[in-house]
Amino acid sequence: xxxxxxxxxxxxxxxxxxxxxxxxxxxxxxxxxxxxxxxxxxxxxxxxxxxxxxxxxxxxxxxxxxxxxxxxxxxxxxxxxxxxxxxxxxxxxxxxxxxxxxxxxxxxxxxxxxxxxxxxxxxxxxxxxxxxxxxxxxxxxxxxxxxxxxxxxxxxxxxxxxxxxxxxxxxxxxxxxxxxxxxxxxxxxxxxxxxxxxxxxxxxxxxxxxxxxxxxxxxxxxxxxxxxxxxxxxxxxxxxxxxxxxxxxxxxxxxxxxxxxxxxxxxxxxxxxxxxxxxxxxxxxxxxxxxxxxxxxxxxxxxxxxxxxxxxxxxxxxxxxx
Length: 322
Ligand code: APR
Description:
Blueprint: E1 5-9, H1 13-24, E2 29-33, H2 39-48, H3 51-54, E3 60-63, E4 74-77, H4 93-110, E5 115-118, H5 123-134, E6 141-143, H6 146-161, E7 168-169, E8 172-173, E9 181-182, E10 188-189, E11 192-193, H7 194-202, H8 205-220, H9 222-230, H10 237-251, E12 256-265, E13 271-282, E14 285-289, H11 296-318
Parallel strand pairs: 1-2, 1-4, 2-3, 4-5, 5-6
Antiparallel strand pairs: 7-10, 8-9, 10-11, 12-13, 13-14
Helix pairs in contact: 1-2, 1-10, 4-5, 6-8, 6-10, 7-8
This protein binds adenosine-5-diphosphoribose.
């Protein structure tokens, strides 16, 4: 059986870390594409030359030619401009729409059977645009956001409780923007509600609620926190790890249930709308969207987030980008 072929579009910060992680896990051969001459070739060579040390033997090809992604099984799209301090993800709408349109046209031509994971921001809008331009079935086009946002939420909970993050489970749903929804009631440590542990720690419900709210707010703004610290560019290690977790579930047919930006077709009461929801990822893509019971507050927040995504899509239409 031949190794899977994975095309990574965009050889910037995220694309390069993804290529290295794919190699470390031996998930498949990588083709790293970028429009900047020599950049993907240099990055690919750098990763490839770590092979003896790390013990991987997959190949990493850098290229400026789309023909090289021919018949890729999986395409991960990181092409685009990252935000600068003070910018929201939505400020990237115009510039990244033009990039994603051209990527979608080329993926459609050269890798028509691929499953596609997008990372470029504003995420929900870029996934929508890619799917419309490529005309790929919705189950084969998805976005990475929730795995990262959930990991950020889990990290803050683990630090607050001084408990290993390995035992923390918490999920973030909704659009990948300030209106994302970290789920409070289902956040747990080996089944024990995080809220109970906070109440135990502080001996006071109000204080526990305040601490939880602070973690929720920090999760929502976590991308911006890193942009502010880096001054140029945005987070790249954690988004890359998140995308590779999704890629692994697809390539190894693991059936992991992960928060994924997937196309709602009636689930959660929405039609033809990309949003972060729990979904099962397997060899053929998004094989199931799982509807979970949301509290009335969470339902309201989900609607607010959905409206935010819809407004972005309308903006794209008004600007004739979609
Ligand atoms: N086709 C292919 N690659 C492109 C194109 C294009 N049309 N336009 C730009 N690129 C490449 C750039 O040359 C650059 O190498 O995309 C790469 C982006 O890399 P970085 O600028 O380092 O950005 P990165 O941090 O990797 O983020 C990429 O992911 O999280 C989002 O907001 C982030 O939209 C941004 C994207």
